[in-house]
Prior knowledge:
Blueprint: H1 7-18, H2 37-44, H3 46-58, H4 69-93, H5 98-129, H6 132-159, H7 187-202, H8 206-225, H9 231-252
Amino acid sequence: MSISLTRASLLSLAIAVVTPFCHAQNAEKPLPDAPQPSQRKIILGMPMEILKDQAGIWTSPARIRSRDLLWLTPLAAATGAAIATDHHTMSSVVSHDTNFNQTSVDASNALTGTLVAIPAVLYGGGLLRNDPHQRETGILTAEALADGYIVQEGMKLIFWRERPAKDNSRGLFFQSSAGVDSSFPSNHSVLAWSSAAVIASEYKSPWVQAGVYTMATGVSLTRVMGQQHFPTDVLIGSATGWLIGRYVVRRHHGRAY
């Protein structure tokens, strides 16, 4: 099934959806204390908090304010330009060499896996060191990843975009054949930028911020170079992930950890 829409209509739909988002211990040392009741309560309460996050995220277009135009306008312009050039970029600019494409896919998987694993590493390190900030960052990052995954799955089922490998990289939207494997947005980009946004918000060191954002950027670029996604997919995926990560930090930062 193919539904013809203007680029302006596609652009407004995309922007409406992404608007919200805005040391090893030796044997002689005692084992870390078990999580305090407040920590257990927070962890057990995460599913409900994620549901509340989803309600806030999906209803956010109703809360757009004029000040949001400061970032909505350039995002809209970039999205429009990307949609207009997606076919040319994937068919004539990005290499179709299978070895190069596979290397790019492997790199994107490795970088995404690292950013997804960070919450467990941070939370475990926070328990070992009795560091509330580390525990907080681990939990918030995990929550942002869960939120990001749910949102991108919902968007895929809304937009049903073909992958670059299909139909000569035309990238048509609203093709029922795309199903849950829809190209828009990039799942890897959403998850990578969700994680990076939380970590960069919790740790203000320029080195930390540069590190996580470099990894997230690498994920987005390699998804395109691997012929897995169009530039529009990773642009909106990156913006969505970053906004979700920032949203989770603003909403949940400062709980007892």
